[in-house]
Amino acid sequence: MVMGRQSNSYGSGGDEERLPLRGVLETQQRAPGTPPPVHHAAEQLKEARRGGSRLWRASVRAGLVLCLLTVPAVLLLLRWQADASPQWVFDFEAPEEDDDQDIQDDMSDDLSPSPQIAYDRLLGGLLVEGFDEKSCRSRYQFARYHNSPSIPSAYLIERLRKQEALQKKCGPGTKAYKEASKQLKYGQSINTTDCNYLYLIIHAGLGNRMLEITSAFLYALLTNRILLVDRYKEIADLFCEPFPGTSWLVPSDFPLNNDEFSQTSPESYGNMLQNKVFGGNTDRSLAGNRPPYVYLHLDGTYGFHDKLFFCEDDQQFLQEVSWLIMRTDMYFVPSLFLIPAFQDELSRLFPEKDTVFHHLARYLFHPTNNVWYSVTKYFRSYLAKAEKRVGIQIRIYETKGILQRNGPFPHILNQILSCAQNEKLLPEVSMAEGAAAETQNNRTAAGTQNNRTIAVLTTSLSSWYSDQIQKKYDEQPAVDGITVKVFQPSHEEYQRSRNKKHNMKALAEIYLLSMSDELITSGFSTFGYAAQGLAGLKPWIMFKSENHVMPDPPCGRAMSIEPCFHQAPFYDCKAKKDADLGKVVPYVRHCEDVSWGLKIVNQTHL
């Protein structure tokens, strides 16, 4: 619902009252050429001055009264805007709230700190108090719907507090930022502040955005840089600000144009190396040759020289550059773990090495109120009372004609059911005739004893798969009498990564998936990576099928909760030759779903 706004105009729009000008006298009519009496003119002057004074005082009083009446109205308007009802993002009508509240959400909506609130609203110390809670309800409410299996390290918490102080000291609006952006604008290579920056250009779909922002933030944390992100990709419509007292959105007057940067840009680090801009120095010293900024092209199409970003010598070189401009669509964290200069710090930050995305994503990403309202309302209405919640994320990579890339594909449906039933995530169904009626009679006779429910949350661009799963359990009920209910919040048919409403729905679904007890994801999907990372769950990954044939086995358990780096380099910087980087250290392995990719695992032996 669109709320009306008060008019900014306080006038009637008609004729305005005209006040007498200072020093102008009204005179009585008299015959032409007849001078007024001197004493009468003096009296008129005194009277006019007294009248002007009275009118001046009256106008002042009127202005004060207007201010007294206007200020409360403005304050009420601002408060109304802050407390405005959030909007439902899904296309169907929002469900009515049940009188019987979910046990996980039976607390008052008053978010003020209270000893009665048992959940860890600060996520083990990742978050800090002090944010305006009503403007971003998800920040402190997420813990109501989620129990993390991991505790962040004390050192990670310490470093996050230092990063927050750095972001506030050097962020947009500060003297340091103004000076640094001025140097950038005029191409000055000498940094007159102690603030260095990493600006992330965002251009990919939602899952990729979450992975690339997390990767960029970890790199900023490791290199003591301020992270700024692209303000033009609806980030503010999706996520609240993560840092207290400052913004991570690059200001609108940022002196560089995003469209200028591509793999062929002369400012690209790979091109600088290839063209020997630095004189071919093997140690890549910047003495006397510091550029004002360097562009890092880390997209999936990047070349050999771009990938040297992941070499230690190149990191020493880049450390001296004040501004780094980065474009990426990948989760490049695994390759940071292979840079010797970062390894000790990363081990201190993440003693459980496979929790990088889990901790940093919960720190960085807080859905805006419209998204969060839709998440919690949907959860309470459809999922909360189930005995178990199973999330199934379906991404189709097959084609069947130009307009049918999402199916229907029966072999994909069989793969989903085979995976879920083989791994005991969903019950087997009875094949006997009349089983449906017999099961219903048994439920009626047993009352509530067999009233056990599994809620299945499916996310897909197509509704066909969820409809078929529900139809199967309606026609052939579970052998153990469990009721299976299938829900799907949206079915967009096609991905529209530049559509704000589409992205808001997608983000709501990622968070709903993260509230599952068990999770099935589609291999290669960054959407699934984001959900599993937020949840802290090792999913069952459905392997990609070939030639429209269901793979055998249909799925496999993930080694860790970490996303996969799809386009990881395979160049050994120390040996200066190609190598299998999935066998260098025990905690970086090849991915289950992308054989050439890399992911972090929590292992200590090769």
TrEMBL record:
One term of GO molecular function: galactoside 2-alpha-L-fucosyltransferase activity
Any one GO cellular component localisation term in the record: Golgi cisterna membrane
Protein's UniProt keywords contain Transferase: yes
GO biological process: cell wall biogenesis; cell wall organization; xyloglucan biosynthetic process
A Pfam family annotated for this UniProt entry: XG_FTase
Transmembrane portions of the chain: 58-80
Places the protein is found: Golgi apparatus, Golgi stack membrane
Superkingdom, taxonomy of origin: Eukaryota
Protein topology in the membrane: Single-pass type II membrane protein
Transmembrane helix in keyword set: yes
Biological function: May be involved in cell wall biosynthesis.
UniProt name for this protein: Fucosyltransferase
Protein's organism: Sorghum bicolor (Sorghum)
